[in-house]
Specification:
Number of helices: 14
Function: Sigma factors are initiation factors that promote the attachment of RNA polymerase to specific initiation sites and are then released. This sigma factor is involved in regulation of expression of heat shock genes.
Largest sheet: none
Strand content: under 5%
Keywords: Cytoplasm, DNA-binding, Sigma factor, Stress response, Transcription, Transcription regulation
Pfam families: Sigma70_r2 (PF04542)
Shape: elongated
CATH class of the largest domain: Mainly Alpha
Helix content: 55-70%
Family: Belongs to the sigma-70 factor family. RpoH subfamily.
Subcellular location: Cytoplasm
CATH topology of the largest domain: Four Helix Bundle (Hemerythrin (Met), subunit A)
Distance between the termini: 62 Å
Structural class: mainly alpha
Order of helices and strands: HHHHHHHHHHHHHH
Length: 257
Amino acid sequence: MTDKMQSLALAPVGNLDSYIRAANAWPMLSADEERALAEKLHYHGDLEAAKTLILSHLRFVVHIARNYAGYGLPQADLIQEGNIGLMKAVRRFNPEVGVRLVSFAVHWIKAEIHEYVLRNWRIVKVATTKAQRKLFFNLRKTKQRLGWFNQDEVEMVARELGVTSKDVREMESRMAAQDMTFDLSSDDDSDSQPMAPVLYLQDKSSNFADGIEDDNWEEQAANRLTDAMQGLDERSQDIIRARWLDEDNKSTLQETG
């Protein structure tokens, strides 16, 4: 069944905006609908049920992937990795546990994205422009001769390389800096051990899964209300807006009559 599940992999191809719109267009499942599908998959290996569970949760992967935009990695790749985590979660989801799939899946989605970030991202990019690369390699040669620079040596090197003293100092600092591992795996529990960014970048003040689920239910409820309103005559629409939808100036029943 694992190979068949992998065949359901959904990766953004072509226009990313079109993919996101398509992901958001899939209807969300009620708790009862989700449980029924999860039982079909868990007890009977129903791949159509698995597909529906995956498609209805793609929007959550997009939400989560957006939180990693600051690492300079392609958004489409982050979403694709998150989708792999979603499929793993769907395959392992037990409907008898008593939690919603999104709460179970969020950890798998983030784990796959974390792995991708660790494989492809370097916190300190020493030289990113052509000028910085030229300064970097020339500065390495000079430092091998002189070691650490005092202010006079910085100014001398700047003149030799045709750059400012500030450029030399900045590049020297970059060359001296060490990368910090995103997710420390050391067994050292001492206070001197630096905290991994993966720990202090997490927002533990709220339940992420509950938040995005609530946001999407509110959006769907608003869309359903709009559709229902469009089926009413103009007088009925005005009454509903005046009685219940106008937060600043709600009318009484007598006023709307």
